[in-house]
Amino acid sequence: xxxxxxxxxxxxxxxxxxxxxxxxxxxxxxxxxxxxxxxxxxxxxxxxxxxxxxxxxxxxxxxxxxxxxxxxxxxxxxxxxxxxxxxxxxxxxxxxxxxxxxxxxxxxxxxxxxxxxxxxxxxxxxxxxxxxxxxxxxxxxxxxxxxxxxxxxxxxxxxxxxxxxxxxxxxxxxxxxxxxxxxxxxxxxxxxxxxxxxxxxxxxxxxxxxxxxxxxxxxxxxxxxxxxxxxxxxxxxxxxxxxxxxxxxxxxxxxxxxxxxxxxxxxxxxxxxxxxxxxxxxxxxxxxxxxxxxxxxxxxxxxxxxxxxxxxxxxxxxxxxxxxxxxxxxxxxxxxxxxxxxxxxxxxxxxxxxxxxxxxxxxxxxxxxxxxxxxxxxxxxxxxxxxxxxxxxxxxxxxxxxxxxxxxxxxxxx
Length: 414
What we know:
- The chain crosses the membrane at residues 65-85, 92-111, 117-137, 149-166, 186-208, 220-240, 252-273, 285-305, 317-340, 352-373, 393-413.
- It comes from Larkinella punicea.
- Keywords: Membrane, Transmembrane, Transmembrane helix.
- This is DUF4153 domain-containing protein.
- The protein is built from 19 helices and no strands.
- By secondary structure, the chain is mainly alpha-helical.
- The protein has three domains: 2-53, no CATH class; 62-245, no CATH class; 248-410, no CATH class.
- Helix 8 runs parallel beside helix 10 (144-166) and helix 14 packs antiparallel against helix 15 (283-310).
- The N and C termini lie far apart (47 Å).
């Protein structure tokens, strides 16, 4: 979007079309460009327009609200399928938890971005294939490949959502980076909605209890499950129509947590030496170690997405560089531990999945860290870090396909 704005600085009509086609992305790109181009009279006008418009909360058109209401009801209806169709709840939710939200959000972005019939067909076939595959896997009490497929099918659906989010045209890397920002903003907004919903739930149940009505089961069976299903959909709608709502919160969170995570990781690595525990011989510790790695990696990529949009501060880039470098050390420990376990006890689906994930994460971290070092050396700009982060995302999508659809077959559904 930045390149499109720059190429149309003297074309007010085209700027207007860009703005109306994708307001949130236009606003983010414009706010990143404006400090460098303040002398442009047209951009000064646009700056006043965007900032003025952001003072009010937009609820969108009536059509938009109807779409969100229908989407929320559909998600809640999917969540209630075990009751409606007498399906075992554990069986249903372990395999289908991702299908409650992701297909609905994917349909929303496909509608907003006016995707071509070809892309709509690809999305529909991908989701249907995932539904049939995951639900027709053998129902056994203990299956590593089933557990891995159930986990990775959620990540696969997240990738399909990203495909719909990127849409038809424009800079794919920038839109993928915007997708990471959207995820961070959605987490913030959905958390706020859930907190508000929790407070309302407590008040409602308490008030009815005062007059002698026990409504907990009825409330959670219907209002609760529909509310939980609707929260990320409403959060998505609010972040897309009102990017200013969390536009300043997310960068603050990134700035606060990045240095704190650096300190935590350093202390944690030192504490491991004195704890007597190690990921080489303790399987549970290795699993927690990898969970820590994935969480820190997510913080890095979210922080990179926010930093590339809002700041060029050397201190923040140094913090991101240190965080990435330390995470490479953590990844190296986890990778060596899984290789040790494979050499000692052989190949299993879990060990193969963890090995593949760690290798992919390590490559990505090395690429991002190298770009951060080049930024610190003034050989490139922070935008290159964002592009490096974004272009690698399809690799993770490919890996989710392999683990979800091929691992059960390759390992004999064990």
